[in-house]
Each structure stands twice: as C-alpha cells, then as structure tokens.
Amino acid sequence: MKKSAFWLLSLLLVMSVFLAACSGGGEKASTEKEPKDDGKASGEVKEGGTVTFGYTQPFKGVLSYAYYEGEDDVNALQFMHEGLVKTNDELQPEPNLADWELSEDKTKLTFKLKQGVKWHDGEELAAEDMEYAWYLIADPTYEGARFANVAMIKGAQEYKDGKADTIEGIKVIDDYTVEVTVTEPSVNLLDNIWSIPEPKHYYGDLTSKEIPDSDQVRKNPIGVGPFKVKNIVPGEMVEFERFDDYWQGKPKLDGVVYKVIDGSLAQGLVQNGEIDVIEAPKDQWEAIKALDNVNPVEADAMSYSYIGFDWGHYDTKKGVVVSDNKKFQNKNLRHAMAHAIDRQAFIDGFANGLGKPLNTPFPSVSWAKIDDSEINQYEYDPEKAKKLLEEAGFVDKDGDGFREDPEGKPFTINFDAMAGAETSEARAQFILQSWQEVGLNAKLNGGSLKDFNLFYDSIEADDSSIETFMGAWGLSPDPDPSGIWLSTDKWNMWRWYSEKSDELIKKGVTFPEDASKDVTEHRQEIYNEWQKLVNDELPIIFFEQRIDPWAINKRVGGVKITPFGTDEFHKWHIVE
Amino acid sequence: MLQYTIRRLIGMIPIIFLISVVVFTLAKLMPGDALSGKIDPLNSDPEYIEEMREKMGLNDPIPVQYVRWMGGVVQGDFGDSFVHKRPVMELIGDRLPNTIILGLSALLITYLLAFLMGRYSGRFAYSFGDYLVSGFNYLALAIPSFVAALVAIYVFAINLGWVPASGSIGSGVEAGTLEYYLSKAKHTVLPAIVLGAMATAAYTQFLRNDMIESSRKDYVRTARAKGTKESAIYNKHILRNSIIPIVTLLGFDIANLFGGAIITETIFTYPGIGYLFVESVNARDYSVMMAIAMMLTILTLIGNLVADLLYGLVDPRIRLS
What is its subcellular localisation (chain B) (predicted)? Predict the structure, then answer.
C-alpha cells in the first residue's frame, strides 16, 4: 500500500518539475537576444576545462535537428550543430553558415555557403547537405513535425504526396550555392524556412523513416558545431569534446557535459559545483541566486501567459472559429476582469518576481512590441473594475454578494488552470478571489484543476463547461501572430473571430507597396495597429511575460543567455 | 511437480489476457495522447497532429486498436515508442541492466540487514535492542522514499560529497575499464542503500517472529534439556528452520527487481525502468507504458509460481499438487 500512495504524491512532484520545464512552451532554437554576458567576471581566461550543463528532464536521444521533438534533445544539439541562418539580438535573421540573396520578385532565395565549414568527421559542408535536409523533411515517410518549415518550397507538397520524384523548387548550383523557389513571397521567409543542413554523406542510404532510430543519430551523431559528441549515456548524459576544426576557431573549453538531473536537486548541485550552467527551477531561484559561487542571470523570455475567455467554438468543417458564446461579449466585463487582478502581486508571490505584466501578445524583447504609452496598461484597480461592471449592468440585485448579469440572472464564471506545480492551486485561488472581490461569482470548473493533457483536450474539444482558462504560449523570434490568432487557426484557443484582426495579421507578412520602405518599419506600423486592437478588445487577459532565471557558476565565463537559452558556446571558458 | 508447473502456466494465460484488457483500457482512459502536448505553433501544425494520429491509428475504434496491439504483443513486438522514436523492446533493453544492478544491490542490502537484525531480535526478543530494531524498521517503513532519497542526497552527496548525487555513471570514464565499474558502483551505492535499507521491516519481523515461535517448539526444549549451548541452539537449530520461509520470499522479489523503483530512480536520475515508466506516463507514450505494465504483470505471476515451487523444495512437508 505504501508504495502506491506515495507513488501518486511523487508523481505530482515529478509533474511539477515537468510542467515547470515545459510551461515555457516554445522552441529553444539556438537563437539569441540581449547579450547578458556574465563573462566579464574578474579573472584570467584559462584554456581548457570542462563545463557541465544541467537540465531537469531526461533527453530522448534523437540528436538531429530535423527529427528531435523536445527541449531536452535540443539542449544537447545546440552544442554540436548549427544552421545557415541564426537570429541576432534584434530577433532578426542573420547569416551564420551562409549568406543569402532574395530575387527581385522575392520568390527565389539563394544561399551561398561559407567555404571550409567542416562536419565533425572532416567532410566539408556542402550545398547538397542543405538540399538533403529539405528532402528528408518533405519525404513521404518523414514522421517529424517540421514539414510546415519546407511547405513553402515550390513542389514540396507534391513530393510529400508522392506525385513528384523531386522537389521542383530546389536547385543546387555548385558545392556552395543552393537556390530555392518558394510558392509565394513572404516577409518572414527566412524565419520560417528550414535552414539547418543534415550530413548527407554520413546518413548514407538510410531512409527518412529510419534515420531517427539509426546509430548515426543516436550513438554517433555529427554536426558542424563547436563540440562533437564523445559519449552518450541514454537519458542521462552526453559528453562532448572540443572540435578543433570549428569554423569560428578552436573553442576554448576542452569539453562540455550535458547532464540530466532531478529538478529538486538543482540548488544543491549548483552549490557543490556538479552543475555549472542551468536554467534554474523558478521556485528555488531565491536560494540559488544567493549562492556564493553563482552568477545569477535573469533573461526576458519569448513567452507569455494569459487568461482566455471562451468566445465560442471551432467549426471543423469550415475550418474557422465561431464566436457564438454570448457570455463574454461585453467589453466592459472583460476590462473589469483584467483590472480586478493584481498581476504584479501574483508574479512576486508565486514566481519570485520572475515575470512582468504584459498587455499585448508581444513580450518586451520582441522588436514589434508597441510602446507601453500607446496602450491600456490594465493596472490593478478594483474600484475601476466595479465601476465598469456597474456600467455594463452587472449589479448585485438579490443581495447575495455576487453580481447578476444585466438580465438579472445569476452570473457565474468557470475558471480552469493546469495542475502540477506545488503552487498551482494557490495561483488559481488568487485569481478566483480577485474576481470575487469585485463581485463576480467565479469558481474552479468542476472544483479542481486539470492535468496538462486533460486541460488542453477539454479546451481543444470546446468543452461547454470551459469559460475562462489560464494558458501560456512560447513564441518564435518573428512576431507574425498567425498560427494562434487568425480566425482559421485551430490554436486560436479562445475562438475569437475578428475580421479586422485577420486583415492586419495577413497584411503584416506582406511586403510594403512602396518598395523603398523598410520592411521592418512597415510591419511595425501594422503590428502596432493590431496590438492596439487586441489590447482594447481584450479577447484574452494578457497576463505576464516570463523571465528565465539562469544560474552560471562563477568559474565559467563567456556564457551568452538569450530569450531562447544559451549561445556562443565556442566562447565559453573557465575563469581562474 | 512438473505437472503442477505446467498447470499453473496454462492457468496464467486467461489472467494475462484479462490484465492486458485492463492495462489497455486504463491507458486509453487517460486524457490526452502523445500528441496532445504538441500544441506549438512554432514547430508543429494542427494538420501534422491530425496526420500523425491517423498514421498511428489513434483514430481507430478502441477494440481495433486493442487487437492490433495484442497481435504484436503475442509475437513479442510491443510497437514503437512515439516519444523516443524507436522500438519499445530496445528501449526497455537499454534500461534493464541499470535497473537490475540497482535492484540486486538493494535486495542484497535488504537481505543482509534483515538477516542480521532479525536474528538479533529473534534471539533477544522483547529486549531494548529488539525494540530499537523494530523502531528503526517501522520508521524506515513510514518514511516516504522520496523524502529518504532527498535527505540522503543532501547529506551524503551535497554536504559530505562522498558519492555523486545523480546519474548512473560519471563523465569521462571509458566503458570496460576498472574506473568505469568503480564509477558505476559509486553511483549505485546511495540509491541502493535508500531502496534497500528502507525496506527491511517485513523481512526482519518475519524472521524475528518465526524465531520466537520456533524457540518454543519441542525440539528446542529437547536441545536445551540435552545441555546444548544457547548460541548453538539459535544459530543451528532455530535459524535454519526460520530461514526457510524467507527464502521463498525471493520469488516475490523478482518482479520488484525488474520493475525498478519509480521514485528513487527518478530522484537520482538513474535511468532504469521505473524512471522510464514515469517519463512515459507523463508523455502519454502508451506503447512504452503498456509494455512495462505487461512485463511487470507477467513477472509477478512467474514470481508467485517460483515462490510456490521454492516452498515445496525447501520444505518437504508441503506437497504441490
């Protein structure tokens, strides 16, 4: 008996770690922003040495960018491989292994590879490797999730459907030049198109289906990055050693160890030096930050949490959301519910201050974020919330302490949130109480929190009991809101339909009519308008943007922290 | 005995079948599947998820899915892990050695401690030492293993630094060298102690009670009357008889050995079966989850059979028919 009871309990503990790890949600590509370099610490740069990078989830061992699924594998991949393009500090694409050129009509993209970039086995990186990666992903037997990143290439869909033997839009010109033709021009083509090569010579005759389970990926994966794989202990550890022929010069460290640990031990392991670099669990941040041997770095993340209102359902046949739920159509009601919550107190109380309230779906690190002075800040103001509710006709008529709706019928609000973290229950209660304070009868839907899977299953299935829910999104560097915000998007979880918003989102990825106008400026204007719209309409309450806490041992320098993780691995070094 | 064994083995088939239905149903009753966590507009789109669900047959009627799964299981094929992208049997095969090493070391520790403590308690029943032993046993039984694991790690790994806190092997050691085995042992010792030392209660008390009972038996009185030394009575006559039931418990431990320790493995990041199981439940990686559950079921059944057979072997008074 003993075992099963504690089993549940500790499953909860495990889950909390799991959720904490995945609540960021987004893809951690090797991109960067805000050079919060801690490496300026005093002391001499020492050649050699090994650094241990910790992570709190076991990795699956699919060590290929084209096939990996989770952050657990990408954390290992980041040390060993790179793409043609990277994201710079302004979250814009920047040449890495290749320069590019876009044709006049914006449909032909030519990558010009740097010469002398070597794979870990000594072969030189060739244009064929890039072509090969596109073919792998568009292959009919491909089972990964990246097809959306090659779908824009002309002929990719036909190849995937088996209607063509080759992809029409790909042309290898010489060993260092490859040209792709896309189906239609798009401003964020470089952000979206797949640009990470795969070693064609190394995978040999393997089919796209066989690759993820092959020894070439699981036991001896290769890349062009600063460190090469020396040893893999499945699910537990990957040891890397320096790759002397790295194209940006010999890395400073002898090696890196990527090690999986249990989240509950993070503080102790950082303290005794078993782990040098780790994204710290937020609930231990106070203690870890205070350790003598740690450089604490807090980096704004490209993710935010929100409270969604249920606007209706998704019409699967037509492929569009239908905002037919009358409950939250009143704008004053939505505004009042936002004003009722003290988001800063929530962040301070539950996340050790690791977050900031936000009021549009763009975190402050995004270049497209509108200036705060131009939008409603929805500051905590219960009196204002009450006033807004009165105006909207939500008055307590029967004296039970809760407001009735304008027709005088009882008005209740169901709220849903994910279970898992120790503080999940308290977080939910905080929000319920905030709404109750202003006279709204809010309660937990079904009386309890939902587990991660059930939560998203219920929302995606448009379960009728779902009325408000707290979710989160991780974002890519490009600000294009489609995928979540268009009325045709299945992940428009709140089912908000707005022609104006759709129109702006679509306009945001077009080139300016006046060709001399800067594309970024043009998009900024459109996104400002869009942000003003969603900020005022408030289809969801924008809650907080996250801050990722990183603990870096003081003996390690040169570690660059970005909104997506760590970067510039070849510059990492030991400080004496 | 052979006939008995065959009869028991045949009797297992309907049980395994029924359990497979239960395991499958419970797995399917869990909300979500391996794809429901993939809501991420950056690297997967709804069409991909739909397509994969279709490909994996998750949209088929449940009975069809069951028959397909069972069809594979009968042939020893538990399917592929969606999360790990490889056959389930390979995955389990990778983790099994770790779990067995840990399980065996823990079992050894349990038996050794239980034998010593049980012998002492049985001989000096109702003494201060006996109470001390049972006090320790019940305390160990009462402490949840994750608390024990965390405290042990904090004290021995982090503060004292005697052993590493997590993992099953250190970095920078080459497989096959002496250093490798030492590193392996160093990584295993703490979780093994946590697992083994906390589970002594049943065995100790079993041995103790049996010894107390035996000490009142006629043959013991006879031995005493003959003037046999007290230590010889306990060590030769009583202990030998009392150890018989303990030996049979070995059969029941088989499933434990392979099943791994879910909590301990997770906290120590010790990549064994238990850790894999938790991971698969969280990721809704059904094929792995069901394979482990089925494996444990079958091992438990076999373990029971072995226990019964051992009983018949060591104790001639019991006849199997």
Answer: Cell membrane
- Local structure of A440: helix, strand or coil: coil
Q: Is residue B165 part of a domain?
A: yes
CATH number at residue B133: 1.10.3720.10
Is there a single domain that holds both residue A186 and residue A241?
A: no
List chain B residues with CB under 8 Å of A237. Answer: 167, 169, 171
Count contacts between A and B (CB, < 8 Å). 165
CB atoms within 10 A of CB B158: 16
What token pair was written down for A47? 């050649």
Residues A158 and A271 both lie in one domain: no
DSSP for A210-275 reads TGGGSHHHHTS---SSSEEEEEEETTTEEEEEE-TT-TT---SSSEEEEEE--GGGHHHHHHTTS-
| Pick from B94, B99, B106, B147: nearest CA to B270 | B99
Reported as a single tens digit per residue, the pLDDT across B101-142 is 999 999 899 989 999 999 899 889 899 999 999 999 999 889
Q: Is A269 contained in some domain?
A: yes
CB contact under 8 A, A18 and B141: no
* Chain B contact set for A260 (CB, 8 A): 166-167, 269
Does A423 lie in the same domain as A376? yes
**Three-state secondary-structure class, residue A339:** helix
**Does A30 lie at the interface with B, CB-CB under 8 angstroms?**
no
pLDDT tens digits, A181-223: 999 888 989 988 999 999 999 998 899 988 988 999 999 999 9
How far is B10 from chain A, CA to nearest CA, in Å?
29
List the domain range (segments joined by +) for residue A256: 40-81+225-293+554-575
Which residue in chain A is spatially nearest to B56 when comparing CA positions?
A: A143
Rounded to whole angstroms, the Cα distance separating B217 from B228 reads 15
Residue matched to tokens 């587990």: A451
Which residues in B lie closer than 8 A to residue A25 (C-beta atoms)? 40
Please give the model's pTM, rounded to 2 decimal places.
0.82
Cite the DSSP H helix spans in A261-405.
Answer: 266-271, 285-289, 331-339, 343-350, 382-392
